[in-house]
Amino acid sequence: MSKKLALENVSKHFGSLIAVNNVSIDIEPGEFLCFLGPSGCGKTTILRMITGFEQVTSGAIVYDGKVINDVIPQKRDFGIVFQSYALFPNMTVTQNVAFGLKMRKMPKKLIDERVTEILALIGLTGWESHYPSQLSGGQQQRVALGRAIAIKPNVLLLDEPLSALDAKIRVRLRTVIKRLQEELGITMIYVTHDQEEALALSDRVVIMRDGEFMQIGSPWEIYKQPKSSFIAEFVGTSNFIPGTKKNEKIQFGQLEFAVAGIENVEEEKIYLAIRPENIEMVDVTISAEDCIPSNVVEVTAEVINFLGAIVRITFILEEEEMLVDLPEKEFEKINLKRKDLLKLYFPPEAFHVYTELFRKLI
Amino acid sequence: MNTALKEYTASIDYGISSARTEIDRFIIPAVTIFIALLLFFFMLFPMWSILQLSFFKGGQFGISNFTLANFHKYFTTSYTLKALWHSLYISTVTTIIVIVIVFFFAYAMARTTISGKTFFRNIIMMPLIAPSIVQALALIYLFGRNGLITAHLLKIDWNIYGSVGIIFSEVLYCLPHAFVILYTTLSAVDIRLDEAAESLGATPFKVFTRITLPSAKYGIFSAAALTFNLTITDFGNPVVIGGNYNVLATEIYAQVTNLYRFDLGATISIILLVPSLMAFMLNYYVSRKTFSMISGAAKPVIPPSRPLQKVSYTLYCYLVAFSIIVIFATVIIGSFVKIWPYDWSLTLDHYNFPSIGGYSAIYTSVWVSLIVGICGSFITLVAGYVMETRKPFFKQFIYLLSVMPAAIPGLVMGLGYILAFNKPYYFFYGTPWIIVINIIICNFTLGILSSISNLRNIDPSVEEAAISLGGDTIRTFFRIIFPLSRVAFFQNFVYFFMRSMTTISAVIFLVSATVHLAAIEIIMLDNDGWTASANAMCTCIIVIVLIMLGVLQIVAKKTGGRPEGLAAEI
Fold first, then answer.
1. What is the ipTM score, two decimals?
2. Chain B residue with minimal CA distance to A115?
3. What is the CATH number of domain A5-230?
4. Any B CB within 8 A of A151 CB
């Protein structure tokens, strides 16, 4: 069965650039862990240090109780799936899948059996003698997956494996990967900048920024309780309201919002974050009597974007551009047009309270 | 599915052998050291020998022996000093002419919609398949004392021997080299820039001077530097057509072979090295800029050229192509007629080579070239791989060593080989093997550069995938890298083979009484007055190179590679 992998105070410097700064995490056997962050945040560097293609500057990578910092990649027995598939273009599907087994000097009969099993597992039976150039992107990535798991790695490392694929195929392959992980019980470490992918696949997500871990938690925790304004902005969408604390309320221009859980906040300058789907529309998604009057505002619909299941409306509140999402079914009822007036309600408990702001307000 | 799972969860039964991975650690350093030693011993050591002989009394290294007497002698002897001015003059004039001719030719290929481009491109590459002597031989047949055009058609006394002859032959010899660079540059620069300028109201002339020329300026510098270098270091053409007009290259040869003044030969080598090194460094410096300007940006279709433009460019290209064809036709026809230009009856007499070498020289040339082709392309691929993908500690150092041969004129390298290896204990001296090594080293730079650019096209993840699956260096190289470099390997093979068949200057000092080479035989035959046989020998070389190109074209097609005509081989 899988063994435990851990990073202990790992740092990586490239000259004066600090790519990864003193991070630690225990990865449980059989876990699906995602590193999620914007490009340049150090997530791929972490993956490459685990694979052994990059050396750690300080700290330790511990596997099964042993420090493996100096173990060469060939001896680590981790499978890797690359963004660019990295299939051997001069070899057929079978030869690609069999490569790792040949390197292990496995008898030919056993190799044939294993390849047959793997091809069945990834749904490519019948494609044995095709070359990578004859396969679609999705099929190529399946072969890459099959090639990586053929050597029975204890840990499978996936570096943005789906980002080169079309949206539709991406979603389908996501299911394939998740199913493989559950059926085979391998630890999977997955790097992506696609938050939807990370939330859909992982047991735990690590949010990274500038080489540091910002938050580690289940997808639900990350989405519902973002620890910082950066995460509230990066995962999903948030409206930010810069305000000042006064009389247990938050002042924002002429408005005074009632906000849950600000009793213990010391600072005067406060940033509230609220997700577009958590803003209610008075008399449409919430009845007027249920609203605290101070949190009801009247605004003009500036832009209406139809996004399918939801309709996203842009409005301006106290010179800040903000978004509210309305389920398409509700939108249909009210027949809203550009420049129409909207009555919106900001529920006090829907706010996240931050004392600093990551991004500049646009 | 269930059995698959059961099988899967079983423990790992076959691991990676530890012994193999242990050995693997030493392979890259060992190969790196081997390459470094090879270049040290066969490039730096001969060059050091030349420096020693030119700067130290009796060639004995030591502070007290340091002397500038050789240089003093050179610069105070008016005859030898003239060679320097001659060389600079010839090279400058040739460079200007070549750049003008080739720029418009390349412009026609890259920017106009004239037809017959494949034909033109193949014709302009032709000079590469023959030794740089074919131009001189042909020009003498056409414009010499008994030239077909001068003496017989125009009945004038003028002949082409001397500086004019050298310039003409060098121009015709340098065309393909400059063309490759300018064509690449002009095809890479975004044609939409021109269209944007035109849409803003610029006249065609303004577009040309303000947009086209500046955007190609690095390519022009690079091509000019290369042409200058090729001309100043060329030996074959000036020795045949120069007459009494001496240049540095012929002067080195004269000092060594006729006067046995090795010290003066070495001194002139140093003097020749200075401008050629400067041209090389300029080329190296600007070619990096050229390639940084070439992006993967989309290249839209060339807009149809105006009729007048089309006609004039077509005529121009035919004119250039015609000149090259005339050169080759003259040499080939000249080898089959009894007495050019008096008796036009066909004969094979000239193919009974009167010299000692004869057909055995051709035979030696072919097998030497095959070995050079295989070893050269393999060594440069391995060296490129070691350097590029593994980034060893002294990568930069090896890189510097690898580009140096391009800066050293073949004749100088050849002289260095005599001085360094003409000792009884260097068993390979006087055998064909020293020629093999010399040609590989002399052409090392282009080989390794094309290997590197090919290796850079291989997705680094592919190699990492092989490693993560347990592949060691040797198996990764032979199963992944080598198959993926096949096309580059073939191209390098062709390049090394062609260079080996046609080079004169690198090996002229290394042939001996027992080892003859076809390209050198041409000079010997011409020198002894057997000009028609020299043409015949030239023809043999051309035919052999063409056959090899054809064979490789077929092989490359069969194995999936697609070199595009001659241009792809450079």
1. 0.82
2. B4
3. 3.40.50.300
4. yes
